## 1
Amino acid sequence: MRQVHVAIAGSTGAVGTEFLKLLEDRDFPLASLRLLASARSAGKTTQFKGQSLCIEELTADSFKSIDVAFFSAGGSRSREFAPAAVRSGALAIDNSSAFRMDPAVPLVVPEVNGADIAQHKGIIANPNCSTIILLMALAPIRSLGKVRRVVVSTYQAASGAGAAAMQELEEQTGRALRGEPLSPTVFPHPIAFNLFSHNTTIAEDGYNEEERKMVLETRKILHDPDLAITATCIRVPILRAHSESINIEFEGPRPSLDAIRTALTEFPGVRVVDDREANHFPMPIEATGIDEVLVGRLRNDLSHPHAIDLFVSGDQILKGAALNGYQIAVEWLRQTSDG
């Protein structure tokens, strides 16, 4: 497999740092690595495989001789600089929402629709973290029968709002335990010992931006524009790893729980955690730091003869962001090498 020259745009953020760890710890055919960030971070150094790498300012000229550019610097930066990366001949794998709903840009979860990678025109979009975690459970179950409707409620960790939000949760928790007042700066409300509707803009129809992403992105990835899906997204005082409660309704008779459990067990990237006797099911504390999405609480919906319920947890920074982008690069490299 050929050696690849890589750049990370947004290398100092939570997801960019995770990209760096993945490239350091895994067997990726890396020829060179360029770390890019804002002007205020330029000149700083970071350690990578025993070497000191200097962080460079992200500019339109940053991508010369680069094969793959991972973007995790926000939507505005992606819109400004991803086309420059493409013009330089790089594949841009973008973690923001900038290009997700562009019909010309594949939106990819490799285990679900990896074949769509071949359709790229220079940019491949990484889906929203909650969408990825949902689809890792929904895709194998969907193979057992036509899905009519999906209802999902999320329990989203502070990590989804970045490193500063994680720090705010830690600091607020300490202040709350000491009886001190809480003054949120990253979130609109106190996050310690609290939960609130996801902190994105709410449209006239009452759905917030995160909920709309889940609906539209799921339909695009599954190539099912008519899928009935609704979401309620909630921010909870968890440091890292999102959880979701999912109700899946089939058009016909629902598959057996044994068939569902088998499909999930055999699906790459999923780990079934479903021990009723021990009351042990997916938990964010166990999903943190691992590749797999944990799936459990498998049961028939008592209110509907064609529906089932389940619960999932997945690391938002790993499978929900950096790991999925890394897997896109690996699958792209495999496809182009085979070709």
Note: The chain has nine helices and 14 strands.
## 2
Amino acid sequence: MTAVAALALGLLNTPGQAKSQVRTKNADTPAGEAFAGMDFRAWMAELRAEARREGISEKTLDAALRDIMPVKRVIELDRNQPEFTQTFREYLGRRVTEERVKRGRAQLKKHRVLLEGIYEEYGVPPRYLIAFWGLETNFGDYQGGFRVINALVTLAHDQRRSDFFRQQLLHALRIIEQGHITPEKMMGSWAGATGHMQFLPSTFIGHAVDYTGDGRKDIWGSLPDAFASAANFLSSRGWQPGETWGRKVRLPEDFDRELATLNRKKTLRQWSRLGLRRADGTALPQADMEGAVILPQGSKGPAFIVYDNFRVIMRWNRSVNYAISVGHLADRIR
């Protein structure tokens, strides 16, 4: 992501947009003659003029945009996103693996002091930041194989979501202008998500943090900055300290499936009176905390009660499957 596929994808929202971190040696291969005509050159000239009006210097524009061309592979990936093509079980099984849980526990232990300090400031528990990190970049192993500027030029020129990606491109140019990173080092996903936590440029502009105090918001090379930026985003979106994301539940045989929607919230007491129980068969907590029931794979699949923090996770990425994966991985890491 990510972060990746957000408003960008018509499905995702902010940091973690690009869940499809496809590794390819030819990630930035130009799209070819179809983009090389007068239309693209005129479009680029108008883009540069707009960027100048936004305060981007000629030096930055030359460094970021000189000889740039759209990338065919970006368009191919935009049309084939895993949130659209995988079932819930496939999606979860590929992301919450035993190896990722094991590595997540090791990373939690390794960075415990840093993460506890961030928790004190922003209220987001360490296990969730580790879970986001694991899902977005496999704990920093792979932050993306595309030059972010190239990818965003491609998507801004494409007609499917041109307005959205044009704004992301202008934000990316602003990040370069501010000196946080150079164009050639701003690598990321095909949808323009970048850094350890796969922030979209707009998320960076709104929420990135210079936690180390060195004058740069370095979400690419500084884990303190990356973790604090993610926590700042989640906190600003309403993260509730001390509350969980949700839990798997058992439904009674006569459960009304029309109640299973994010738009129908009830207290745990009310759900309990309707016959819902924990996954192990024990009673739900008799509390007034509100949650909604969701069935990510339909009536034949698992059921979950999800709470306000689940909705915050979905502000990161508007995929139910993704949000459950974050919560489940965080629980397994704990």
Note: The longest strand covers residues 246-250.
